[in-house]
Write a structure and sequence with these properties.
The complex is a heterodimer of chains A (about 775) and B (about 50). Helices cover about 45% and strands about 15% of the residues of chain A. With about 775 residues, chain A is of the alpha/beta class. In chain A, a hairpin with a 4-residue loop joins strand 7 and strand 8. The chains are: A alpha/beta (about 775), B alpha+beta (about 50). The complex binds iron/sulfur cluster (SF4).
Chain lengths: ~775, ~50
């Protein structure tokens, strides 16, 4: 038999049908279905063998690459170590060769000890523990039959798991609105779980939950959600993550929310297949299928009407749910919670008012706007300039890009330790994290990692730098990149052979644990008239400029940079205030390049390194000013292109560029034209101080820039916004063509232009 | 009516905790600034979560 049904991917295997606690909210014993009374206490080896065989058969038939099996009860640990070991071995033996088997056990924890954990480790089984929060919350329901508290024993079990973190799946907390939500949440967080599940108590319209107010459950969860978001969502909470995911069209992570077809089946201790366990709350016999592992395969179970009913997505919901604005996230809630005598499951959830309020709150809280560039900013930039406000828009976009790229890198295994520290700091010390992530070469590093190069482990260095800035004591292993342990925005330790990579951060001071005398090169700053930028000669990711970067500068070389920078900045501020404002707003870093061996100047900007320019220290401050202005044009335009499209990215045409020996793609021509807008302007103003050569340069570059603007215009590859940008450039450049320039300078410029065109071989 | 802003398709992630940056946004950013990068895989997780 084949489809039309969704194959099962989740199996709950009941290995023991009794429990050593007597929780009064338990759906197995305290609700309508009482079938546990007639089932064997413990699953037999024969039933396990049949179950494993049926699952294996199902996996093969449907080509499933991954299945999840949860060993459950009652209390599964009552089955004992030896039997559990046999069950796990049987499941792994039958399934490991066929698919990826995610095997877990859900326990109340009271019997858990290291001997059990050894067995789970041997069979690679993750352990989830039920705990309802702090002691008061937990003891409200989770007690032994004689009324004793289970709290101490459960906490002891969790502590054991914390020491064997690779076995720790998470904590499952059944809500009670009588408990203090934040006390519950904090108590759970303190146990450092890899994940928290909050579960609504099982209830139906026939047996509604205790409800002091109409939306008591939503209000309880909203208190936790707000704290969770404010604290940076440090611990994954499946319910909240599912609402966020489904709100943007992704799949849910839990059966209790969303529209995904149910793909779960329960196997009882006697081998009976049952539908979702939660149906036990509806009526006696509700979960029953009448089918059994010995006589029936899983396709037969999948075709059972009760199972099919839970696979119909939107079509399977009542009219109220179908018309509901949050139905993609809610999905009508858990199937069992919809039950009412008479209409059966054709109802909204008994928690409908709570779900609607919670999901709406989450959506509003996380409504995610997109970046936008005001037209005024586009116009100011198109003219060639852009002030501080305009730079703030570009900086905002860049911050988003870095955060997004970082989130892409963190999935690399070697980034785990850094990610852990960084997300913690991000929750509590955001300004320190932002200050480090704003360093231009963080994005360059992330881009390398995401394209197959780079060292994802360097995330630890980024996190360490943020910890230092935040004044948070920590200890973390740094990544050596190109022979240095670099801390972005701070400097670098030389990583001589045998240097201990463990960094200790204490009281805002930091040392390498095993090499306290490691050579440290702090970043230096260039300062001028209240403006300061990093003179970056330690970051191993700065070698991305297509030119040879200088090594660590001597004090003398750094001094020469400082003097030239002060003079250049003074010139920019006095002669080119329109450019100074943007530079002051967003230039953060200057990378020294090695002077070209053949003489002349070298400078560059790199697309991923927003805020940085690389320059070989030129012979005079005026040239440094020119190079800073030129390269910063690339920085600004690159940031605009990161956000919006000015041209058709599919366009493959190549164009003559008067400043290059080779033909350039459209973006290259646009970048060059925009940079030479500033170059023309520089020489235009410079003529009043130094005539002669400045006249020639102005005549040359205004003509080249104007010609290139026309080439761009005729490319037919600019978007409407690109045309608008180009019009802004033209508005700046056009009047310059009418400015008087001595005849000899025009002739000299024409000759230079002709020589370049001839050398490039262009028509 | 005058339009004052040019909208990008880049979600503003500045106030989203790093740990909650959606995979779909990472993919969109990669598509914009690093089209050569492979899309980041998202991990699937077991959905069953009944308490004992
Ligand atoms: S909120 Fe209520 S009406 Fe809306 S989908 Fe959920 S249960 Fe149905």
């Amino acid at each position: 038999m084949n489809g039309p049904f969704t194959p099962f991917r989740q199996f709950v295997v009941k290995v023991h049908s009794r429990c050593d606690l007597a929780c009064d909210h338990c759906y197995v014993y305290e609700h309508a279905d009482q079938s546990w009374q007639v089932r064997p206490k413990v699953i037999s080896d024969e039933t396990v063998a049949w179950s494993a065989g049926r699952i294996a058969e199902h996996v093969k038939r449907h080509g499933l690459d991954r299945v999840h099996i949860v060993l459950h009860g009652g209390e599964p640990l009552l089955a004992g170590r030896a039997r559990l070991a046999r069950i796990m071995a049987e499941l792994r033996g039958r399934l490991d060769a066929l698919c990826d088997l995610d095997l877990r056990v859900h326990t109340n924890g009271v019997l858990l000890d290291d001997a059990f954990l050894d067995v789970f480790a041997e069979h690679r089984v993750l352990v989830g523990i039920s705990l309802d929060g702090d002691r008061i919350a937990n003891d409200r329901h989770r007690r032994y039959a004689d009324g004793r508290s289970s709290y101490e024993r459960v906490i002891r079990a969790v502590e054991l798991l914390r020491r064997r973190r690779d076995l720790y799946a998470g904590l499952l907390c059944t809500m009670d609105v009588a408990n203090d939500p934040l006390a519950v949440y904090r108590a759970l967080c303190e146990l450092d779980p890899p994940r928290i599940d909050f579960l609504l108590p099982h209830a139906t319209w026939d047996a509604p939950p205790p409800r002091p107010t109409e939306t008591a459950y939503a209000d309880w969860l909203i208190r936790i959600f707000d704290a969770w978001i404010e604290e940076g969502a440090r611990v994954p909470v499946r319910m909240f993550e599912s609402i966020l995911r489904t709100s943007r069209g992704e799949s849910s992570l839990t059966e209790s929310l969303g529209l995904e077809p149910a793909d779960l089946v329960v196997i009882e201790t006697d081998g009976a297949y049952e539908q979702a366990d939660s149906l036990k709350v509806a009526f006696d016999g509700a979960p029953s299928t009448g089918l059994n592992v010995v006589t029936d395969d899983l396709d037969t179970v999948a075709a059972h009407t009760g199972i099919l009913a839970r696979q119909e997505g939107l079509g399977g919901l009542c009219d109220t749910c179908r018309a509901c604005p949050v139905v993609e996230s809610c999905g009508g809630g858990l199937y069992a919670h919809r039950y009412r005598t008479g209409s059966a499951f054709a109802n909204p959830s008994v928690y409908s008012a709570d779900l609607l309020k919670l999901i709406t709150h989450v959506r509003h809280r996380i409504a995610m706007p997109t970046h936008a560039l005001p037209y005024d900013t586009i116009e100011a930039l198109a003219a060639g300039y852009g002030g501080d406000d305009d730079m703030q828009h570009l900086l905002a976009g860049q911050r988003t890009l870095r955060r997004g790229l970082l989130a892409g890198v963190h999935t690399h295994h070697s980034a785990a330790e850094g990610w852990d520290l960084l997300t913690r700091l991000d929750a509590e010390h955001r300004p320190a994290v932002d200050a480090v992530l704003d360093h231009p070469y963080v994005r360059e590093w992330a881009a390398r990692c995401l394209t197959g190069g780079g060292s994802p482990g360097y995330l630890a260095n980024i996190a360490a730098a943020a910890a230092v800035k935040a004044g948070v004591d920590t200890e973390i292993t740094l990544q050596d990149v190109d022979g240095v342990f670099h801390l972005p925005t701070l400097g670098a330790f030389e990583a001589a052979r045998g240097t201990d990579a463990r960094l200790l951060v204490k009281d805002e001071r930091f040392t390498l644990a095993g090499t306290p005398d490691a050579v440290w090169h702090p970043v230096r700053k260039l300062r001028a008239n209240g403006f300061e930028v990093i003179l970056e000669d330690t970051d191993p990711h700065r070698h991305c400029h297509g030119h040879q970067t200088a090594g660590r500068l001597s004090e003398e070389e750094a001094g020469a940079w400082q003097r030239a920078f002060a003079d250049a900045w003074s010139l920019i501020e006095s002669d080119h205030p329109h450019y100074a404002a943007g530079l002051r707003g967003a230039l953060s870093t200057v990378v020294p390049l090695t002077p070209p061996p053949v003489g002349g100047d070298a400078s560059s900007a790199a697309r991923h390194a927003f805020g940085s320019v690389a320059i070989a220290l030129p012979k005079d401050a005026a040239t440094l000013a020119l190079l800073l202005m030129h390269e910063f044009q690339h920085v600004k335009l690159g940031a605009v292109l990161d956000m919006v499209d000015l041209y058709d990215r599919q366009h493959a045409g190549l164009y003559y560029a008067p400043w290059r020996p080779d033909l350039r793609p459209l973006e290259g021509l646009l970048q060059g034209t925009y940079a030479h807008l500033a170059v023309s302007d520089f020489w235009r103003v410079r003529r009043s101080t130094v005539a002669g050569q400045s006249d020639v340069q102005f005549a040359l570059w205004r003509k080249h820039t104007a010609d290139a603007i026309e080439s761009l215009d005729t490319s037919r590859a600019l978007t409407p916004l690109g045309l608008r940008f180009l019009a802004g450039m033209r508005r700046s450049a056009e009047p310059w063509l009418a400015e008087p320039v001595p005849r000899e300078a025009i002739d000299a410029a024409a000759e230079l232009a002709e020589r370049h065109r001839a050398a490039s071989g262009a028509e | 009516m005058t339009q004052f802003n040019v909208a990008s398709n880049v979600t503003d992630l500045r106030d989203i905790p790093l740990s909650l940056v959606p995979a779909s946004d990472v993919d969109r950013i990669l598509g914009r600034v690093l089209p050569e990068a492979a899309p980041v895989e998202s991990v699937s997780v077991a959905a069953f979560n009944s308490s004992i």
